[in-house]
Design brief:
By secondary structure, this protein is an alpha+beta fold. It has one domain. It is about 20% helix and about 40% strand. The chain is built from 4 helices and 14 strands. Strands 1, 2, 3, 4, 5, 6, 7, 8, 9, 10, 11, 12, 13 and 14 form a 14-stranded antiparallel β-sheet that branches. Strand 10 and strand 11 form a beta hairpin. It is globular, with a radius of gyration of 19 Å. The N terminus is likely disordered.
Length: about 290
Amino acid sequence: MAMESSIEYKSRGALVDRTTQRWVRATGRRVALEECPWLEGPVGDVDVIGGDFFARFADREGLTMVADGPPRGLVEDFTALAGPACDPSQVDARVAKFYEQTSEYEFDVWSEWRGGFRPFAKALAAIFSRRLQQLNVPLSPLDTSKGISTAVIRLVDPAGAVQQTAWVREIVASKRTLYAGSYSLCRVPGFDGPCVKVGFPLPNGSANVIMRPESAPDGSFTVRSSGRNFGDPGFYFFVEAGKGQGWARYLRALKEDIRVYVDPLGHLRADHNLQIWGATFLRLHYRITEKS
């Protein structure tokens, strides 16, 4: 009986995946990655992503995983984020250090869902996130009450060059993968400066969040994924259609921002807000502590 239930669960999930991919093809545009390089990145396996995805990806691509040794960050050099709205010298040194040495930090996280969106979140988790072990956003503060574990992994080619920086986060209590994403800098036609790109592998494709960097006089640093047109910062679904080819859908309605700052007591924190059609549906609050 349990086996039949599991088969039905996987079958229903596969149908959801196929429907999503068909929607991207029907409503998106055909793209060549050489013309849209900001969409290029790791593409997921057919069924499960999970915390070991990048080990499988590295093996497939002939890359070496580096998960220990010197500190590893989401960006190698914070000054590389300088742009129209970002002056790296304005950012608190503790914030910049976090981005350059992310592997050296621990996290506590609290989730805050806005009322009407919670049932939708539960349905999404049931048919999508938990099955794939990807984008497993916590549904309540209790989900992450025991904290989250993180691993920052560099994927290095035979010449020693870093090809991808992966950040895998797992909920300690449930062992579910919260996020498994690759981080890099990129440029898009709709913004005159570098952007932070986060790529989340999905079955036969990926979800790519392109965020523009902003500094503030109070020393905080924000990345923001909002725009109006294809080629702007924002959220993109990508479905692979052969080597170097695919379909892409820009989701203008979905926006997010992540602000990292030092609070009045000297603690490093981050606030992560997600919106759809202008309404905030989820806030994530992080306390970030340097490992002892």
